């Protein structure tokens, strides 16, 4: 029997409630409906006071170190950032600056972003995808971008967005199932006969 996938999401939203958090939670729920997983949501807005001024990982408090370790040990990542001045937030980048450059190699990453209008929809392709290419992750082919009008009371509400999110997860499932089958084979190979 394989263990559940470690699904870790990082939301770059700086406040609560947050559209970025709402989109992140929606994506987590969609994945959890399809694949047995252990979920963890890292909200950078809540951790900001503890790492915003740090320069070295050794300066970070335990709570931030735990969040970084969870990201590095994840089987699958969901990352979401609000668009700020045409890109992900500086706090989002600062958090990932502490991640070891080899820790995410080959991990599937579902990219998502929120913004005030459709004008920033390419942030996924022009900002997020290159960042996670540096880490040599396996960024999933479909990203999910949402605007302010896609939410009502900080809940995903737009049917087109709901369909896009569902499609992004459906397209990711074959890769997640492949990961699970490889893990099962590895466990069986190591287990005594």
TrEMBL record:
The EC number(s) attached to this protein equal 1.5.1.38
Q: Which GO terms describe its molecular function?
A: FMN reductase (NADPH) activity
Q: Does the keyword Flavoprotein apply?
A: yes
The alphabetical list of record keywords is: Flavoprotein, FMN, Oxidoreductase
Any Pfam family: FMN_red
Q: Which residues form the NADPH-dependent FMN reductase-like domain?
A: 6-150
Which InterPro entries does the entry link to?
Flavoprotein-like_sf, FMN_Rdtase-like_dom, FMN_Rdtase_MsuE-like, NAD(P)H-dep_FMN_reductase
Q: PANTHER family, alphabetically? A: FMN REDUCTASE (NADPH)
Its family remark reads:
Belongs to the SsuE family.
**UniProt protein name:** FMN reductase
Species, as recorded:
Ottowia thiooxydans
């Amino acid at each position: 029997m394989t263990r559940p996938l470690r699904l870790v999401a990082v939301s770059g939203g700086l406040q609560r409630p947050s559209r970025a958090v709402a989109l992140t939670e929606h994506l987590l729920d969609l994945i959890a409906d399809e694949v047995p997983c252990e979920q963890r949501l890292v909200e950078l807005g809540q951790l900001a006071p503890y790492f915003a001024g740090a320069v070295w990982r050794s300066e970070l408090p335990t709570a931030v170190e735990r969040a970084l370790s969870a990201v590095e040990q994840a089987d699958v990542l969901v990352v979401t950032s609000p668009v700020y001045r045409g890109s992900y937030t500086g706090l989002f980048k600062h958090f990932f600056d502490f991640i070891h450059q080899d820790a995410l190699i080959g991990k599937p990453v579902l990219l998502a972003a929120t913004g005030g209008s459709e004008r920033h929809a390419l942030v996924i392709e022009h900002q997020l995808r290159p960042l996670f290419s540096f880490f040599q992750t396996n960024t999933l082919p479909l990203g999910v971008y949402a605007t302010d009008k896609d939410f009502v009371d900080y809940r995903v509400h737009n049917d087109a967005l709901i369909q896009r999110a569902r499609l992004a997860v459906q397209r990711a499932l074959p890769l997640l199932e492949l990961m699970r089958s490889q893990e099962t084979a590895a466990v069986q190979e190591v287990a005594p006969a």
